[in-house]
Amino acid sequence: MTRVDIPLKCIGNRKLYMNSKRFQILKEDLEQFLDGEKYMNSKTFSKKVLLSHEVQSNNIVEGYGDDVQIVKDIINNNINPKDPQKRQRILNLYYGYKYILENNQIDQEHLKELYSILSKDLLSQYDLSHMGEYYRDDDVYIFFSNRLDAKYDMGLEPKYIKEYMDGFFDYININNDLNTPTDYYIKSQVMHYYMVYIHPYYDINGRTARTMSMWYLLNNKVYPYVIFNRAIQLEKNKYYEVIRDVKKYCNISYFINLMLENVKIELEKEYIMHGIAASTSSKLTSLDYQSLHYILSMKGMKTVNDFASLYNRINDKRKLLDIYQSMIIPLLDKDVIRHVRDTNNNIYGTQSNFVFELNPSKLDNNPNKIKKLKL
């Protein structure tokens, strides 16, 4: 293993470090995958995914199960939900993403502006009254799980935050002549972790850290990797466990490896979905893309009941009939998925549950591209 020290401090006179050879094969695989991918290597792609699906995914990581259709409806002012905080957290991320698409400089002042957008009308009165000019003035716990560990589940002591954040901005804005898009992605995920480690605010730290990572990717025109939140929503427990482990040992290799593995899977899904859309005469909706993403995330036999179970694990719960009618039937009508056989139980009434598959004629299962997904 080759140890690489990162110029970012950890408490106890330690430095963050990684073993770079641990993920060398993964890096090469990603670089080979993205070579020549014009569709993903564009700002148009990043805008498309940021302003709907990534708003949904970033919130889902925090435990808010807002369906992509609800996200779209709130952004377009088509609905006004009963819960005003639901509307606010969606709009905050939407306007936060618009901000990072339009502003390049990552520094203390611009981060303050971004955080003001992301946290608007979501902070408690205590949080507001105990904020300094830029960062919190009191301790805060990080809820990785229901079991708190006082040593590892506290944000940085307030007296250190300014010093550590200044060093963080230096790290972000120097030595950016990196070799490959994947090197920039790795650096963005170091940023992602370190912002969570410092935890400079009382709330909205995770969403700010992930948005800041996207900001860095956009600044460096590394467009495909902005989809990394999609993978976290499917493995939230593992994500938080790995963050806690890095806090203990200062070895960020675990976290980088997880984020590389997961983003490769998401890029493969995106490649498949783009191919399906190109070979389908009817235009796919945002909800169709979300349905396809869930289907590609399912392992083993795919039934309507299994699909609904996965949907309800990630999103706010809906009735099986509603999921079937709004998400499965449109894909059947567009010949994106096909009925294989009925099972022994029903969806509702006399309508059988059934096994379905992606239409094989629409799948580009190129073995040079699709190495992680099991289709």
Q: What does this molecule look like?
A:
About 55% of the residues lie in helices and about 10% in strands. The protein has helices at about 25-35, 45-60, 70-75, 85-100, 110-120, 125-130, 160-175, 180-200, 205-220, 230-235, 235-250, 255-280, 285-295, 305-315, 320-335, and strands spanning about 5-10, 15-20, 335-350, 350-360. The strands form 2 sheets. The chain has a two-stranded antiparallel ribbon with strand order 1-2. Strand 1 (about 5-10) and strand 2 (about 15-20) form a beta hairpin. Helix 2 (about 45-60) packs antiparallel against helix 9 (about 205-220), helix 7 (about 160-175) runs antiparallel to helix 8 and helix 8 (about 180-200) packs across helix 12 (about 255-280).
Keywords:
Fic-like fold; Arc Repressor Mutant, subunit A; 2 domains; two-stranded antiparallel sheet; 4 strands
| Mean pLDDT value | 93
Helix and strand element order: EEHHHHHHHHHHHHHHHEE
Separation of the first and last Cα atoms = 34 Å
Which structural class matches the secondary elements? mainly alpha
Tally of separate helices: 15
Quaternary state of the chains: single chain
Given the C-alpha coordinates, what overall shape results?
globular
CATH homologous superfamily title of the largest domain: Fido-like domain
Strand content: 5-15%
CATH architecture of the largest domain: Orthogonal Bundle
Largest sheet composition? 2 strands, antiparallel
**If you compute it from the alpha carbons, what radius of gyration comes out, rounded to the nearest whole angstrom?**
21 Å
CATH class of the largest domain: Mainly Alpha
Walk across the major sheet and give the strand order.
1-2
Count of folded domains: 2
> How many beta-strand segments?
4
